[in-house]
Amino acid sequence: MRKPLVAALFALVITGAGAAPAVAAPQPATTASRTTTTASRTATIQAVDFAGTVALSNCSGSVIRFPNSADTDPALVLTNGHCLETGFPEPGEVIVDQSSSRSFGLLNSAGTRVGTLRASKVAYSTMTDTDITIYQLTRTYAQIKSSYGISALTVSDTHPVAGTAIKVVSGYWKRIYSCNIDGFVYRLNEGDWTWKDSVRYTSACNTIGGTSGSPVIDNTTGKVVAVNNTGNEDGERCTENNPCEVDASGNVTVRQGINYAEETYQIPACFGTGNKLDLSASGCVLPKP
After folding, report:
1. CA separation, residue 128 to residues 2, 104, 246, 256 (Å)
2. How much is the pTM?
3. Which whole number is the average pLDDT over 32-41?
4. What digits encode the pLDDT tens for the residues 205-222?
5. What domains sit in the chain, N to C, each tagged with a CATH number?
6. CA-wise closest residue to 197 among 210, 187, 211
7. For residues 154 and 224, is the Cβ–Cβ distance under 8 A?
8. What torsion do the CA atoms of 207, 209, 212, 216 make, to the nearest 10 degrees?
9. How far apart are CA 231 and CA 241, in angstroms?
10. Beta pairing, strands 165-170 & 113-126
């Protein structure tokens, strides 16, 4: 996990101006799609900006929908399990239908806060196998669109692909990181927690504290393919804020300065009509309580 945000801010003060400008200056948002053409194919590159992202008190997140969600469904917010306001879920712990009134600052495409959304409950949260919290909101997608002109981000229901160009969009810092998916990690161990089939970024996505929970967006489809959650800060082996990679044979690799995300393609199968959580649904592989 990323260190608590207060600790991250303190570290910036201690290390001086060398790190501060990168945090303070958001990357300009892209305002239009563009098309690139090769001899063999034409690919539309989607605009990726801050629209639909949210700022939490200590993390980032996004308003999400699934391929089969309806405009009349209650909207959902995705962030990390370790961003849960009641503290980190324990290894093996799964939280469902927990009351919450947490608020989220909704951003427009330019990264300007245009309104406040509020949770009605924690629909699902865990740090086992993955690192996600999904909040159900008090408003529907249609109501949010009507009030703010902002649509939810769609979560892809297919596994991401190595080499894909991505953006990590932090609503907390109002900053966009651009890089590629470098590959996938069989097991990512950090402290007492283990995550499966994690996304490894190329080094350009040098995410920091407060970017936890940011949506990882495929540049071509514009869909969410993962949720940003951690990175190895000090080169330590498998400790908090220093995750290590473990392959299927048990070999451990430490990559200082490299950051990671947890895949989200498995989430849509666990939500049915009305965006209702159904962990017994066919194809749902999320951990159960």
Report:
1. 16, 24, 16, 23
2. 0.87
3. 33
4. 999 999 999 999 999 999
5. 53-154+270-275 (2.40.10)
6. 187
7. yes
8. -10
9. 6
10. unpaired
